[in-house]
Amino acid sequence: MMLVDFRISDLVFGGILIGKMWFIGTVILKRKVPKFVPTWERFLLLYCGKR
Q: Using one digit for the tens of pLDDT, what is the confidence trace for 1-51?
């Protein structure tokens, strides 16, 4: 049971880590290459930036 719990928590931690890396990567990519950003993502970025 402990091994299963460890695997689940490890998956959750890994998912959070990948999510943070993906978010940081997309933010850097959006700053460097604004032309490739889809309109809805640009709107989302502006909306999140204003709040």
A: 556 666 778 888 888 888 888 888 888 777 766 565 566 676 777 777 765
Answer for the pair 10, 17: CB distance below 8 angstroms, yes or no.
Answer: no
Radius of gyration over every alpha carbon of the chain, rounded to an integer in angstroms? 16
Write the DSSP assignment of 13-50 as a string of letters: HHHHHHHHHHHHHHHHHHHH-GGGS-HHHHHHHHHHHH
For the question of whether the overall pTM of this predicted structure is more than 0.70, the answer is: no
Q: Where are the domains of the chain?
A: 7-50
